[in-house]
Amino acid sequence: MVATFGRWPRIGLLAAGLFLFASSEDSRSRADDKKPDPLRESLLKLNGATTEETQTAKLRELIKDKAKAKKAIAEAVKMMKEAKEEDKPFNYNGAVILARAAHILHENAAAERFYEHQVELATKLKSGAKILSGYEGLIDLNWELKRYDQVVEVCEKLVDMKGPMEVENAKPFIIERLVQAKAKQGKIDEALTMTKGLLELTNDAWYFLQLKGWVQREGGKIDDAITTYTEVLDKLDGEKNLKADAKDRLKDRIHYTLSGLHVENKQIEKGAKHLQELIKRNPDSATYKNDLGFIWCDNDLNLEEAEKLIKEALAIDLKEKKKLKDDGKLDEVKENAAYLDSLGWVLFKQKKYKEALEPLKKASLDEEEGSHLEIWDHLADCYMALGDKKAAITSWEKALKMEDLSKRDGERRRKVSEKLKKARMEAATKD
After folding, report:
1. Terminal CA-to-CA distance of the chain, rounded, Å?
2. Quick check: bond before 164 cis, omega within 30?
3. 244-257 pLDDT, tens per residue?
4. CA distance 118 to 137
5. Please, which pLDDT band fits residue 199 given cuts at 50, 70 and 90?
6. Which of 166, 116, 161, 109 is nearest to 137 (CA)?
7. Contact by Cβ (8 Å): 286, 336
8. Taking a C-beta distance cutoff of 8 angstroms, is the pair 378, 343 a contact?
9. Which H helix or E strand runs over 225?
């Protein structure tokens, strides 16, 4: 009995020791759990960006490293899911920055979540400006994703909203986006009827007259659109409430639109004439010079002059970007993919195939701007001209994976499919 009794105290001490050790480990584990997470701490600091300037600075800082930014956004979403509904971790300021960052980085589900959170917080604050900001983010996101039903839904929600004043004042422009979304849904007649109502309410204002032209263009009524936009120019000439420089900028924009409409209508010289006038008034515009150069070379006109214009556009664009970087407004300076494509295409048209290949390849490798069917089609044409059929087939296959960005892309897609089929048949016959 004594011996047996003598064992239990030792076992008890051992058990106690194990218990104390386990308790110590558990306490240490809980202490470790309470250690602040540096990423979460940095995300919560976004809440302190109270001005538009500081929000922009925080946004730029956040998206500078894309891989890290995507990780941060994923963590922010996780934080939102973990929190109770009444105790979300991000205030309006943080939601604004995270929504914009996710939008820029194409983290679409996260962007939608934070825009909706932004709207919810703005509604509680009863701030019209902030409500509009959140809803505009949702409209832009859905528009880019071609979710026109959702655009209509958001716009109609805003139109039906009673106050605040900022929302009431913005309603004609919200209706404008609603009209455009209806047109994108293919409801052209309904969109034109709504536009007619806006024009009657505003006494045929030039602003909504250009909306009518936009809808007509979307509906394939090119001649009608040209007539409408020409009428817009006449109205702008008689507009007394606009300052001269503002009026000139608006007229330039309409001339630019008319140039595109004439090109769509196969009236190349008329389209080029608008651009020539624009270049005279804006000699440092990279956009106008590139577009005129491309229109000419795409239609086998004035190839040497077209090449000169496109090279000037590239130089102007780089100069502008370098200045923005020097001013701290841009993180990276790179050549414009569209302009590189134009350069490659004008060199191709002059049968300078080896020279054309480099800018075309560079354009196609641009992750943000190079994912365009037309760029990859031009690259494939160049490979074929150089006798590299395998590379041409690969490029056309990639081209067909690209999303259509315009109605013109639909016709191009058909031609690319035909060229790819022919190249494959030739390759199979050769083998």
Report:
1. 96
2. yes
3. 999 999 999 999 99
4. 9
5. very high
6. 116
7. yes
8. no
9. helix 222-237
